[in-house]
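Journal club side-thread
Mid-discussion, someone asked how the predicted structure for our own chain would compare to the paper's figures. Pasting it here so we can look after the session.
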Amino acid sequence: MLNWAQQFDDVVWLDSNQNSNKDTQKHYSYDAVLAVDAFTSIKTDFHQGFEKLKEYQSYAKDWIFGYLAYDLKNDVEVLKSQNFDDLGFSDLCFFQPKKLFLIKDNQVEIQYLNFVDDEIDDDLFIIKRGVEVARGTVFSDIKIKLRIHKDAYFDKVNMILEHIHRGDIYEANFCQEFYAENTQINPLETYYKLNRISKPPFASFIKLEDKYVLSASPERYLKKQGDTIISQPIKGTAKRSMNVDDDKTLKLNLSEDKKERSENIMIVDLVRNDLSKTALQGSVKVEELCKIYTFDQVHHMISTITSKIDLSTHPVDIIKSTFPMGSMTGAPKISAMKIIEDLEETKRGIYSGAIGYFSPNGDFDFNVVIRSILYNASKKYISYSVGGAITAKSDPLKEYEECLIKAKAMREVLEN
């Protein structure tokens, strides 16, 4: 199906890799979803971005798929994004697909808009027969560069620690970019390899004309199901080991690590506060606190926070009141966003934003765009970013090493 989809300019593929991580299934609606070929769409910068999305979603009253870039923060608060940007993604992009495939429990539900529904049989015939696409190679002598080198990274982390010790903030998520210029890749093959390494629960392949997102995200940002809102921030990461006993020790050490637990709990408090803005009184609950989830590449500490809403609350307002996600900003959120904007070298764009969908009844599900390769084919520019939470007990060297662990899968794929 995904090979067949490459003929279209607008493609969103969402894959939960359900069979590889049984522990994360309880909040899933679908195993995978494919949406292609825009009938209507919206693309805009951050100026009144959420209001424009609200109007579009209310007008469409249909499935819409797309992304929210991190820099929509400037629509929510009086903030700015003035760092270097060579990717050129819009701040917000959604489309209403002509053709939609919803996959769950070994069944496919197919929804085509009325004026193309006579194409279903032909499309299924082609998909079943198997579509050959030019696989090519992932790499073209790719030379990965760092936007922030090691010594500069240490200096910037120490500046954040000064802010923390002064009381300006108590946590900040500081990110750095890895990039390659004048480089071409095969986006689909790159996605296949990245997904195969990580098998994450929120993988996605996005193609919007000449721009691609190849995401192996392990993190849910926000889901609405009926009157229930679910957020699952990740804070706390440990590497895996091939040795079973060593791996168990690494997992146990992560669960008992005071620094990792403290940064997770700080973000849980932030998410509880964000959800309370639209929640029915007394309905915000922490269902899981600092639970360890195991993935192919890493162990993660994840908490699950839920709330109940009045069904008259507009779904876009729920997202706006929590955006950007606390796990990618820090706390207090606004102060942290100002500080990281000053210290980071690259505009985040879609990185640490969210990819997902709205259903016709106003439900939604969005991931956090991390562990993702971003590609502008026209500019031949490849980018991936990684970050970590800086708290009072952070060691700059350990934070740097954690970034390299998080970057490992992307680098392996790109450098073969």
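Post-session note: The longest helix spans residues 396-415.
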